[in-house]
Structure formats: C-alpha cells, structure tokens
Amino acid sequence: MANVSGVQQAKKWIYDSLVGDSENNAIVSGRIYADRVPAGTTPVYPYELYNLMAGTDVQGVGTVRESTSALFQIRVVTSGSPDTNARKAEYRIDQVLGGAKNQISGDYMFTSWRTDPVDRAEYDQTQKLYQNIGGLYRLWIQKVA
Question: Domain 6-143 class?
Fold first, then answer.
C-alpha cells in the first residue's frame, strides 16, 4: 500500500475489523462509516461512526517517523435511546478494538485500547433525540514494511 498514511490505513483497519466481526455486522449490516454518513445516504439506525480526534507522531533519529499514536472516537449512533441492538453493537466494538494487539493491515501494525467512554445525546432542529454510545480508542500505528 505505497503512499498510504498510517491514519488512512488505520481507518481501513477499523472498518475491516468491525465489518469482519460477524456479530457486529449482523447488527449494523455494514453501516460503518468514517467521519460522516455519505452524502445522499438516508441513515438507517443504528449505524457506527468513527473519526480521528487527535494524534501524535513519534520521531526516531532525525526526521524518521517511528510510529503514530492516534485517538479515534468510535461510536454507535441511534435514533432515540439506545436499544438492545445498539448496546450489543457498542459491546462488540469494545470486544474487537478494546484490546487488539499487533494486528497487521497493509504496511502497518496496529494495537488499540479504549481510553474513555462516549455517551452523549444530540438533538435535531425538531428536538428529536439521537444518542451516541461507544468510546475513545487509542491506536498505536507503526509501519512494518
């Protein structure tokens, strides 16, 4: 995967890991999105959303980047209060990404763990409730090839 950044490969790894978990995928049917629901798509709930919140590069000798420590928010979005399926999806996210160690995807190796919970409400202009449940996950990203 020449010329792919560690963060871009991390987004692919998150997606592949979540869609590859049969229990999780049974709940969200592949509705797993990076950054936002794609334009022109009518949301079907629940769905999963992940995005980069912050990151720090770890420098080696000179200008060589040895690795990246990236913080991703990964969450289940529901219309209304979370139901049993949404809570199961949140649990599966944590099972899949909460303690992944040294997993290789493309030219990078990933380790991830949850650092903080996410549980927040949002309201649209009509005061309809949308709930976000999940966590902040720290990914250690290191090039292997």
Answer: alpha beta
